[in-house]
Amino acid sequence: MGKGRPSLQVSLSVMCTAVGVIIAAAGDFSFDLVGYSLALTSVFFQTMYLVLVEKSGAEDGLSSVELMFYNGFLSLPFLLFLIIATGEFPDSLSLLFAKANSLAFSVILILSLVMGIVLNYTMFLCTIVNSALTTTIVGVLKGVGSTTFGFILLGGVKVHALNVTGLVINTAGGVWYSYAKYKQKKSKQRIISDEEARQK
């Protein structure tokens, strides 16, 4: 993307995050090959998606709102096909009509829509302003929080020392990445201000 090679600290922090994931997965005694395969496929496509968002925003100068519009417009035919192909469309319509008079349902539906819009907007904005990698690492940190709450609130998972160790290493990698990017940004600002001072 023309941003050059990442610094050593950024590279090591990303590796630390990946090692944390591998260690946490090694402690998963309910290992499911299909589940992990689908998760890896999801990670791959999410990465490609964010790289394309970054590329579109940087090269074409599209704003987050424009990217959201194109994303929705281009995704709609595929989503409609999936809804119809899986047979969910009639069930969804009947449920929508049955709950249409419920105030609680309407409020929850509207809040869900608004939260989805805000989530996508902030994700696109983060990707355009920072990078696809930064957005991914922020997502990893969010995922650690979700996983921890899932362990505590939902239960049903046998927590192993490897799970906890992996989550801690994963989180440390995410925090390290954030710190490395912060230092990188500060040093760039210092270089720019030094150059401006020399020119005066």
SSE blueprint and pairings:
Blueprint: H1 8-26, H2 33-60, H3 64-85, H4 88-99, H5 103-129, H6 132-154, H7 161-199
Describe this structure in words.
Helix 2 packs antiparallel against helix 6. The protein is 85% helix and 0% strand. The model has no long low-confidence stretch (mean pLDDT 82). The radius of gyration is 21 Å and the shape is globular. The two termini are 32 Å apart. It is mainly alpha-helical and 200 residues long.
Short structural summary:
By secondary structure, the protein is mostly helical.
Give the % helix: over 70%
General form? globular
Give the N-terminus to C-terminus distance in angstroms.
Answer: 32 Å
Structural class: mainly alpha
How many alpha or pi helices? Answer: 7
H and E order: HHHHHHH
Biggest sheet character:
none
Quick one: how many beta strands? Answer: 0
Average pLDDT works out at: 82
Radius of gyration: 21 Å
Unreliable residue stretches = none
Strand fraction equals under 5%
